[in-house]
Amino acid sequence: MENDLLLLQVGVTGGMGRWHGGCLQEPAAGASCSVAGWGVSRAGRPSPRLQQLQVVVMDARMCNNSRFWDGGIASTMICFQGFPWDSWSKGDSGGPLVCGRRAAVAGVISFTGQDATDPFKPPVATSVVKHRKWIRRTLRSSCPGHIGHTDQPIPLT
């Protein structure tokens, strides 16, 4: 599930205002971060309110060892762990991984193991820092009327 990233262009009329950029930060192992989403609640339905969970970034080598993802984690991915284990939910994919005092975006939640409570299959995010050039290039070329605009998906390769 490498390069699991999508950019969505939202019009100003959507009520969200204009995005003025933001900090992108690659977190170090042990960094304290948070994730948010409307994943499946304990009742088995999507949560009616946005949930937030404090997490810690794992060392990439540890996450890739045979007890965890056994080599399945690419350099463009970030493993993290939340406590308690049962707080992590299916359906949170696409949510932000935010780290640091200045709330810098570090990643986008991508996937977890079959059992979201399994501590040996921690959740994984796609690093936005590792895709910074692609994000900038895509944002520049995706405005209607600009050279390079396309209505077709732009591959990451």
TrEMBL record:
Q: Does the keyword Acyltransferase apply?
A: no
Q: Which GO terms describe its biological process?
A: proteolysis
> Which ranges does the record mark as transmembrane?
none
Hydrolase recorded as keyword: no
Report the Gene3D superfamilies cross-referenced here.
Trypsin-like serine proteases
One of the entry's Gene Ontology molecular-function terms is: serine-type endopeptidase activity
List, alphabetically, the Pfam families matched. Trypsin
**Keywords, alphabetical:** Disulfide bond
**Where does the Peptidase S1 domain start and stop, copy by copy?**
1-140
Record protein name field:
Granzyme M-like
